[in-house]
Specification:
With 458 residues, this protein is an alpha/beta fold. It is built from 17 helices and 20 strands. The chain folds into two domains: 102 residues, Urease, subunit C, domain 1 (Roll); 306 residues, Metal-dependent hydrolases (TIM Barrel, Alpha-Beta Barrel), CATH 3.20.20. The strands form four sheets. Strands 1, 2, 3, 4, 5, 17, 18, 19 and 20 form a nine-stranded mixed beta sheet that branches. Strands 6, 7, 8, 11 and 12 form a five-stranded parallel beta sheet that branches. Strands 13-14-15-16 form a four-stranded parallel beta sheet. The longest helix is centred in the N-terminal third of the chain and has 17 residues. It binds zinc ion.
């Protein structure tokens, strides 16, 4: 069994159920498990004794979209594509990603998936939950091949064909529920447990306004039969709230999910920014988790404050959604946006934020072996180089990490005992090739006239 020893000037452990930093410790890995956290230098096959390293449990990013992020990047900032200031989910992102699946070859789709996963790994994520269209099995391929721990979440839609009218209002057509559940089951049969167990699936009905009651009930039943987590988009826009209230006897999106039995501890609900306080009280009572992705909303001028959900006693995690995919940057934004929203500085503190991508995130997917550095835990580690000039001198490593660090400071990433990133570089492939091929595949989408038309100046 291969052994690896990594020295941390600081190591993030847990004490009394909270993150706790210890000084000058060796983390010893045997095979794919953490064997010890010790002050004494252990014997190991490979030893990393570098100064100023902060050894964290591998970070969990439980809401991300590699594919639509790569398509949208640098097209959708500064309000572009937002007719009437509305969400671009149904007007731009879903139609374009759907077109892209048929336009691109499997190799091109794989290249975009690899580009995304390279970015995630270099940013320090070791576990990613990724909702994506079920015609994109290349996401699983790329995750398995590149060594990421991955919860693939192929979408299910009652109606995948969302179309925006001239006023920006979205209408829905089609009946895809049964076909999508069959496709999900086929992907589960093919991929669950691959990559020595690193590859898993989550049940992923897309959102409350694209999934009807029959499909949502069927999703919940199947997920609970298999014991897989359920994730969806919830209350991500005011239009969604209006649509659900009109369709389902005045229910809010959260009440709609509760009516169908989905609001429960196995549900990870992305965004919830258009939720009322009553909705949030209901979510807290049911034990559901909120996935907070503040930057994608900040881009649109909306406040998605982690502190608001946390204040209701809801388990709140931080993910990157389809924008930027920089988890440390997202934590920094979550801190600042929560403080602005509350008008005070002591909300969304550093310990809460690091917990949102380690211990709390692992608990939400019932993985006590993840998100923690302790003997017996999975050997997933994220190591940050705290010797950069913008991080020195360093009085408090956790506050420094959240307030001042960014993804470029990620030095090392280990998943399941394998070092995937070392000194900031991906160890098992040609980064330049992955970037070149991924970018070329995305450029093919933007060559389409309908893609450019979505961004014509109003
Ligand atoms: Zn999302």
């Amino acid at each position: 069994m291969t052994t690896v020893a990594i020295f941390g000037a600081w190591v993030l452990t847990r004490r009394d159920g909270r993150p706790h930093v210890v000084r000058d410790r060796w983390v010893l890995v045997e095979g794919n498990r953490i064997a010890a956290v010790t002050p004494d230098r252990p014997a190991a096959d490979e030893t990393f004794d570098r100064p100023g390293r902060f050894v964290l449990p591998g970070l969990l990013n439980l809401h991300n979209h590699c594919f639509s992020e790569a398509i949208a990047r640098s097209h959708t900032e500064d309000g572009r594509g937002r007719k009437g200031g509305r969400s671009i989910v149904y007007t731009v992102l879903l139609p374009l990603s759907k077109t892209a699946l048929t336009l691109l070859s499997p190799q091109e789709r794989l290249s975009i998936a690899q580009l995304g996963i390279l970015q995630l790994l270099k940013g320090g994520a070791t576990t990613v939950m990724e909702p994506f269209r079920n015609g994109l099995p290349e996401m699983f391929e790329a995750a398995e091949e590149m060594g990421l721990r991955f919860y693939g979440a192929p979408y299910l839609f009652s109606t995948a064909d969302a179309k925006a009218g001239p006023d920006g209002r979205v209408t829905y057509a089609g009946d895809d529920g049964e076909a999508d559940l069959a496709a999900w089951n086929a992907l589960h049969a093919r991929w669950e447990g691959r990559g020595e167990g690193r590859i898993r699936l989550a049940m992923s009905p897309h959102a409350t306004d694209t999934c009807g009651p029959d499909l949502l009930r069927a999703c919940a039943a199947r997920a609970r039969e298999l014991g897989v987590p359920i994730t969806t988009h919830l209350a991500q826009s005011d239009d969604e709230v209006a649509t659900i209230r009109a369709r389902h006897d005045g229910r809010s999106p959260a009440e709609y999910l509760d009516w169908l039995g989905l609001l429960a501890p196995d549900l990870l609900a992305a965004h919830c920014i258009a939720s009322t306080d009553d909705d949030l009280r209901l979510m807290a009572a049911r034990g559901a988790t909120v996935l907070n992705c503040p930057r994608v909303f900040a881009r649109a001028g909306r406040t998605a404050a982690l502190g608001r959900f946390a204040a209701h006693g809801i388990r709140t995690l931080v993910g990157t959604d389809g924008y930027n995919m920089d988890l440390l940057g997202e934590l920094n934004a979550a801190s600042l946006i929560s403080k602005i929203a509350a008008g005070r500085a002591d909300v969304a503190d550093s310990a809460t934020l690091i917990d949102a991508v380690t211990g709390e995130a692992a608990a939400a997917i019932r993985r006590p072996d993840l998100g923690v550095i302790a003997p017996g835990a999975a050997a997933d580690l994220t190591v940050v180089d705290m010797m950069h000039p913008h991080l020195q001198p360093l009085h408090d490593p956790l506050r420094g990490l959240i307030a001042l660090a960014n993804r470029a400071d990620i030095a090392q990433v280990m998943v399941d005992g394998r070092i995937l990133v070392d000194e900031g570089r991906y160890r098992h492939g040609d980064e330049a090739r992955i970037v070149r091929e991924g970018a070329a595949a995305v450029a093919r989408i933007w060559d389409l006239p309908e893609a450019r038309a979505a961004f014509e100046e109003e």
